[in-house]
Amino acid sequence: MYRKDGVMRKGYEKKYESRIPKENYPDTGAEQLEALKSSKQLEEFHKYREAMKDLPCMPSYHFWAPDGKINDPNGLCFWKGRYHLFYQAYPPADPRQHWGHAVSDDMIHWKDLPLAIYPDIEYAVFSGSSLVEEDRVIAMYHGFGIGNMIATSSDPLLLNWEKNENCPVIPHIEASVEGKPYRIFDPFLWKEENGYYALSGSYYGGENDRHTGHNNVPVEHLFFSQDLSEWTYIGELSPIGFPQEGWGNDGACPYFWPIGNHGKYLFFHFSHQTGSHCFLGSYDKVTHHFTPEKHIHFCHGPVGCSSYQAPCLTPDGSGGLYLIYNTTDADMTLKRQGAMTVMHHVTTDEQDNICIQPVKQIESLHTEHYTAQSLKLDAFKQTKLDFSGRELDIHMKLHLSDARGLTLKVLASDNSCEHTDINLYRSRRKRGEEVVSMFSAVIDTTYSSVSPDAEGRQPEVVQVPDVSDDMLDVRILVDRCMVEVFVNGRITIMQMMYPSESSTGIFLEALGHDVMIDELDIWKMSSIY
Q: What is the tens place of the pLDDT at every residue in 384-443?
């Protein structure tokens, strides 16, 4: 294949060209919308969604792939008044990774668009990020088998993408070849005054192979370019490494954005060994070194089914970030595999604590409402609420006070055979003469499903930091086969489960002592499909 100047393009040919017919579109908005009406891909997507959307295993307000399997979210961005989400798609007619594409006005209601980026010189289109400029959006992703790639789009719906003629712009080579100290994997792209910078998520290998177990620790390799085509290796983003991580971890799916008002940066990534992590710290634009200061881990069990997987973030325009993950199913027999979380809003407070909540726009799905004030729960006595459902937004505020815990059961059957438990615990210990309370949140899916196809996963347990006056502010999003939990805006955990369609009950139980719930609000949620 030749470049426009007639020079051979690094010897790469389109030997891996996708078997999916590529759909090309006009470059103006009105014409694009009209052309989409005859899209064969969208016609197939619509048929799949109509056939699947009401099944009990299909989330109602979480995004899932319109043709079966979904993996990492990619390239989340805001362009010409709309939010764009790309993702790892596996079209049945050619189940190698392509970039799938959806668009939204509010980050809640997503509309399918045709596939965005197809393999041709690369075997598959792996994960990456996007950078929005005034006149275009730049995607940088990993082309499996050859290295990191650049593609650009400038049309209103980002339907047409053109790959850089110098792709792969950062070729893949083994770390032991030519003395190169890096491996190439998922890239993240940003721009500073003097040019473009890119991370390539990986693990530190030196001359050692990953599978030997030597020097197998996460690292982010930093590259620089002024034209997106020629890239220079600079070194490690964090020469001191990433604390609280170690052997066996890698730095896949990196995202590195400024956050807050104190000049801090937030670095998110996914490890195939221990799940999703983020670090808050300082970034020196002279040395291009990042110094981690705070760490949060988002996977509290084995990596695999039913946990937060790859993160994807974009700025909110006000110093915060929007964040979405994919998750994998805990039932291997499902035709659908994987889904996205709802969109999270990530900010920092005055103490530079990382704060995470679901985006406020999710309230647009609220329908029927249940509310209770000063609800007293007797110790070790289950209280069944006169309200039920499989698609819920639950918000409660409580003081555990003298109780050691509270259990909220959702998606519960009347005979108690099925129930998903959200447990809030308080434990005390002495620190000198002072008695200190520690708080934790747990999702337990042990009894979530009587189906033999539902895979087991240990309970997710996370400590709630900096609890003031024993006050817990808990948000629980229930969506048929998914539960996401947010506590005090500081921690979040999730699980997947597969209850019977009739399991819709909600139960509350105080542990050890009576509990007073100050405020309890529950909304049923409408579907986005």
A: 999 999 999 999 999 998 899 999 999 999 999 999 999 999 998 888 888 888 999 999
- Can you tell me which residue has the tokens 């799905």? 365
The model scores a pTM over 0.90: yes
Q: Tell me which H or E stretch contains 46.
A: helix 40-52
Per-residue exposure over 284-302, b if at least 16 CB sit within 10 Å of its own CB, e if not: eeeeebbebeebbbbbbbe
Helix (H, G, I), strand (E, B) or coil at 32: helix
CA distance 345 to 360: 8
Q: For residue 327, how many C-alpha atoms fall within 13 Å in the half-sphere facing its CB?
A: 27
Give, as one character, the DSSP assignment of residue 23: P
What are residue 512's phi and psi, to 5 degrees? 85, -30
Question: How crowded is residue 65: how many other Cβ atoms within 10 Å of its Cβ?
Answer: 25
Say if strands 354-358 and 420-431 run parallel, antiparallel, or are unpaired: unpaired
Residue 420's nearest CA partner among 357, 343, 358, 477 is 477
The first and second tokens of residue 486, run together, are 């947010």
Number of other residues whose CB lies within 10 A of the CB of residue 333: 12
* Residue 44, helix vs strand vs coil: helix
Amino acid in the structure at residue 134: E
419 contacts 503 by C-beta, under 8 angstroms: yes
- Rounded distance between C-alpha atoms, residue 316 and residue 323, angstroms: 10
